């Protein structure tokens, strides 16, 4: 164990024993260095570890403080385990609800807790636009041939370089540039399945996955998913044994809406299970740069030896959403994906590709990401603390390890659509749980976006949501009593 890890463990144990009370200021970096006889660097590393564990928090111009721990009754959401293979194949129809939610945010200028998008003000869009404008001035005319798949060679090289720097061996020849991760997912799904086929997905799952299945006339089969470990591999094995599965679609890193980072060993087990049955898996890794830990997480691609992993990602959640630049690394299906890209949208515009490539090569992408990660980590703690404080007893929350969304389980009887409509009347949007499944098993869940700046108005909105949830729950209890 490294010295800073040992020191961090000692401080954490002292907090657990009550030596340091919640909200109490701990020794400054210099004081701790002198008091415990360790270097300033060791203290800084230890405090950073304690921040990542949720033990300490920093306050501007004030120092480090012991973070208040969750009150009794607020725990990580735990899926029902009574039945393992509870997945039910069904046609998908959630797009109308999603579109309605997005329109509400725009039309009502509401508090955007229901938004699936990060705060655009965090992006270096002015700098990227400067690159794009310079490129447009340099090139008076464009040759359509330059825009054809697989994409701009320099952007492909920069993407491959980032993977290589993080220990993922990537062949640049495998990368196909797409119009965002959504197109990458759609093309990958088209490459491995056909209308009428059944696709296994997590439950709950990100609704873009369900949209892709719906649009292509396929059927989704939902597999229980743990808020820490990810998709239930035993349940998936039962599904595979009982019916024909054309493909699997998952988000192993910072899954939307649960926010977990699937452990490496379970990623390996998932790839091995699917490989044994020659089932391709589409990996949505769009949040891969938004981790809260010390290192970028592994991907399913790390464990793929058969070319069955179709890895999809984009810059939309980490750099700029307006340019809609994503990519696919489709393994053995690379030729099909490139052909489908040509048939579906023909090209991805060159200027955004070159502008992003220039930014990656010349500007501080990693510095930008460190700032965003730190902000999201802090705001995740704030949002969690506010939900714990203001929501009714029996509320349970996820513990996101990256990304910018919190999954909230409301007490039974608090219908998320009732809460959605009541909140909208108050100028607040939320993501109702109905959007994350083809069944009504998440009717008392909501998803909250915490990427936007935390303000007194944000806190007031969370408080109002808690009040509305309590009112709806009390009304449901009264209605139930009247029926009986």
Automatic annotation (TrEMBL):
Pfam families: Aminotran_1_2, GntR. Coiled coil: none annotated. InterPro entries: Aminotransferase_I/II_large (IPR004839), HTH_trans_reg/aminotransferase (IPR051446), PyrdxlP-dep_Trfase (IPR015424), PyrdxlP-dep_Trfase_major (IPR015421), PyrdxlP-dep_Trfase_small (IPR015422), Tscrpt_reg_HTH_GntR (IPR000524), WH-like_DNA-bd_sf (IPR036388), WH_DNA-bd_sf (IPR036390). The keyword Transferase applies. GO terms for molecular function: DNA binding; DNA-binding transcription factor activity; pyridoxal phosphate binding; transaminase activity. It comes from the Bacteria. Residues 1-69 form the HTH gntR-type domain. CDD domains: AAT_like, WHTH_GntR. Keywords: Aminotransferase, DNA-binding, Pyridoxal phosphate, Transcription, Transcription regulation, Transferase. In the C-terminal section; belongs to the class-I pyridoxal-phosphate-dependent aminotransferase family. This is Transcriptional regulator GntR family with aminotransferase domain. It comes from Caballeronia insecticola.
